């Protein structure tokens, strides 16, 4: 049985982390397959250390876009070698909260690194490992940022990406929609504005329609 690689993508506050847990639980109950969850950046011991560098601002020295790109590349190399490819070889379904399409959008579209440069880095570090289906959770920028702020209320969190200006987040949303427009066979765009339950149903319907694993 071949493994299947799914990713959840979208802007800040779109609900990826919540939906990852809900979808994984539903697939475990209905598919009879091993379900492995991951997140980018992160997922392995080394990749989690890289995550800390990427997510937390350093006083007096912000990361350059090129540094971000290289760190995400290092993270994805570790994830592919030590987590994703072994799970796929076992026939598991891997579901990741973000992967290389986020790099194309965040570092390419929003940070304005040439898309071909980002694509070359992704190809180099992943060595052919790419999602079978990318679920883009689409949400208006203002609503997503309000949700992200509410999510972090009461928690001491300073996230470099959450705190970026609205123009950055708008470029991110537009970037994901453009990727989906260019490759509709591999992308499914889901409206992330409704209730969690409704969004989960829409995601599962898309997975079933595209991959028939339910």
List the helices and strands and how they pair.
Blueprint: E1 4-10, H1 16-31, E2 35-39, H2 45-55, H3 65-89, E3 93-97, H4 100-110, H5 115-126, E4 133-138, H6 141-151, H7 166-182, E5 187-191, H8 196-211
Parallel strand pairs: 1-3, 1-4, 2-3, 4-5
Helix pairs in contact: 1-8, 2-3, 3-5, 4-5, 4-7
Mean pLDDT: 94
CATH class: Alpha Beta
Oligomer: single chain
Question: Largest sheet at a glance?
Answer: 5 strands, parallel
Number of H- or I-type helical stretches:
8
Which topology does CATH recognise? Answer: Rossmann fold
Beta-strand segment tally: 5
Shape: globular
The run of helices and strands is EHEHHEHHEHHEH
The CATH architecture can be named as 3-Layer(aba) Sandwich
Protein architecture, described:
With 214 residues, the chain is α/β, with parallel strands linked by helices. The chain has a single domain (4-211), classed as Rossmann fold. It contains eight helices and five strands, in the order βαβααβααβααβα. A five-stranded parallel sheet has the order 2-3-1-4-5, with helices on both faces.
How would you describe this structure in keywords?
214 residues; Rossmann fold; 8 helices
Summarize the structure.
This protein is α/β, with parallel strands linked by helices and 214 residues long. The chain has helices spanning 16-31, 45-55, 65-89, 100-110, 115-126, 141-151, 166-182, 196-211; strands at residues 4-10, 35-39, 93-97, 133-138, 187-191. The protein has a five-stranded parallel beta sheet, with helices on both faces.
């Amino acid at each position: 049985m071949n493994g299947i690689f799914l990713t959840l993508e979208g802007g800040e506050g779109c609900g990826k982390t919540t939906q990852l847990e809900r979808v994984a639980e539903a697939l475990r109950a209905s598919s009879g397959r091993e379900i492995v969850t991951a997140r980018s950046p992160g997922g392995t011991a080394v990749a989690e250390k890289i995550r800390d560098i990427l997510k937390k601002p350093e006083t007096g020295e912000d990361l350059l876009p090129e540094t971000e790109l290289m760190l995400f590349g290092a993270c994805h190399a570790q994830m592919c070698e030590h987590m994703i490819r072994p799970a796929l070889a076992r026939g598991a379904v891997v579901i990741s909260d973000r992967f290389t399409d986020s790099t194309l959008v965040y570092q390419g579209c929003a940070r304005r690194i040439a898309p071909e440069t980002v694509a070359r880095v992704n190809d180099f570090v992943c060595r052919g490992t790419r999602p079978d289906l990318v679920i883009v959770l689409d949400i208006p920028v203002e609503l997503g940022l309000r949700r992200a702020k509410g999510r972090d209320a009461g928690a001491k969190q300073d996230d470099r990406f959450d705190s970026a200006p609205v123009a950055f987040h708008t470029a991110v949303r537009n970037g994901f929609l453009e990727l989906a427009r260019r490759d509709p066979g591999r992308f499914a765009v889901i409206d992330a504005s409704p209730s969690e339950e409704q969004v989960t149903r829409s995601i599962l319907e898309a997975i079933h329609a595209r991959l028939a694993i339910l």
